[in-house]
Sequence to fold (66 residues):
Amino acid sequence: MFIRFVSSEIDEDSHVEAGLFCAASELLHTDSLPPYELEALVELRDCSRSIWESPLHHLPRTGVMS
Fold:
């Protein structure tokens, strides 16, 4: 099963809704968050990395030499 959380942001490359974690990553690189929200976002990011695998690990590989 694959569940994808999306935001209202549209990715400029794919032209589809940006994923939740992509949107969160964008926020980490702005000055728009107060320190307490930045700390909470970093904590959630770190926690999610320890729980879930990246969906990129499940994409078909191309150009792999056997």
